[in-house]
Amino acid sequence: MTTYAQAPDGVRLGYRTLGSGPGLVIVHGAMSTGANHSQLAEGLASRFTVHLLDRRGRGLSPAAGAEWSVEDDVADLRAVLAATGARRVFGISIGAIVALRTALVAPEVERLAIFEPPLFGESAHPTALLEKLDAALAAEDRPRALVIGMQGAELGPSFLNKAPTGLLVPMVKLGLRQERRTLAKQGPGPYVPMAELAPTLHHDFRIVAETSGRTAELAGLPQPTLLLGAQRSPAYMRAALDDLERTLPHAERVTLPDVAHEVTYNDDLRGKPQLVVEPLRGFFA
Asked: Do 245 and 227 form a contact (C-beta atoms < 8 A)?
């Protein structure tokens, strides 16, 4: 079921709802929508009413303004919590940063789970990445922006993360052309095309730059918090969870073995969502 919540600025925010039981909002990360986690939601739906939010500029929700900040994402999530009555939140990657910042100011969040927020120990590195990304987007070079995003987040294979950006751009252009041909032949599928999502990288990298180096501000977080991680994810994401484990007063940690950052995604996106369902069921119950 597709539903909409009204944000403080009057914009309608789209989300999909399935299941029954206590309410749980899932907040997706970069280069994705709620649809990327539909199998995860299905696995939780026997115990919870799951709401798959589409953050602004993605899927069911309209684009954000140029000066969009993490506080604006927090306001949107609080609007969805108010509309649904949900008191549980699971934030994934960038969505984990939004969820953490929301829990800090929102007493309506009773239990919080997060998966690998891409937080750096300081803001200089993500700020420099944001400048490169914005330059590519300003030049309308979406393939280059996608490469900068992948390498900046260290989410590709190690040899690609270290390769010259110019070497990878033609490969991404070919991938985008193939994506367009597939769309022309088969029509839209469940996922938003990469070329369409590329501009949203500006907002997500801005959130990382705004919040990196500020983990100490979360020391008073009152909610029980589950810190989920994957054994094969980038070292800086594991370090971010280490930092959060030391900082949050009511945190417990689970590391999923032999998987990487895409584990929360659907099977056809190289995820293994069934591995994520069990710890979430136990924690949120």
From this structure: yes
pTM over 0.90: yes
Q: Return averaged pLDDT per consecutive 10 residues of the chain, 285 residues in all.
A: 94 97 98 98 98 96 87 97 98 98 97 98 96 96 96 86 90 94 90 95 96 96 97 96 98 98 97 98 96
- CATH tag for 2-121+214-284 (out of 3.20.20.70, 3.40.50.1820, 3.60.21.10, 1.10.10.60): 3.40.50.1820
